[in-house]
Write a structure and sequence with these properties.
178 residues, 5 helices, single chain, alpha/beta
Length: 178
């Protein structure tokens, strides 16, 4: 007698990160098929009086503590976008690089999503406002109140990965076509 094969995906813990050099939002969810369970969210506030290298170090240490406590298997992060200020974009890129390097060093899968993709996945519109994202995240995560803007963005990024993960090929799974 053959055993029944199920296609049920295993429960997945996702850490979403809204990167920055002053404030970093983070949000954790568990996804089990269509079910989303909220775990935790918050913000890491980095001292602006410190140099960028010191802030990045604080960021990596603090986010590492979140990873150690909640043990996610995936980190979803907002992809870089075209800003008007080159220096701000450079600093944001440094924060993103530090976060992704730390996550990979801890064995997490890392996925990036452009802001418009995150907005569309959560609200249905790639042009959603911060308030619309907060309201939708509150609903999807069944929260009593809206999280802060940075934490809501991080949860939205985690939700985006949760919604799109079946369409993403794992590393090494792509086949070459002729």
């Amino acid at each position: 007698m053959k055993a029944a094969v199920t296609s049920k995906a295993a429960k997945l813990r996702i850490l979403g990160v809204d990167p920055g050099t002053r404030v970093v939002g983070y949000g954790l969810i568990d996804v089990d098929g269509p079910t989303v369970d909220y775990i935790e969210c918050g913000v890491l506030r980095l001292p602006t009086a410190e140099s960028i290298p010191h802030r990045l170090h604080r960021l990596v240490v603090a986010l590492g503590e979140v990873i150690d406590e909640y043990t996610p298997t995936v980190l979803a992060i907002e992809a870089a976008f075209h800003g008007v200020n080159a220096m701000s974009a450079l600093k944001l890129g440094q924060a993103r690089g530090a976060i992704m390097t730390m996550a990979i060093g801890r064995g997490l899968e890392v996925h990036e999503f452009p802001p418009a993709t995150v907005k569309k996945a959560v609200t249905g519109s790639g042009r959603a406002t911060k308030a619309e994202i907060q309201a939708r995240v509150r609903l999807l995560c069944r929260l009593r109140r809206e999280p802060s803007s940075d934490a809501a963005d991080a949860l939205a990024i985690a939700l985006c990965y949760g919604h799109t993960r079946h369409a993403l090929a794992p590393a090494g799974a792509l086949r070459r076509t002729r």
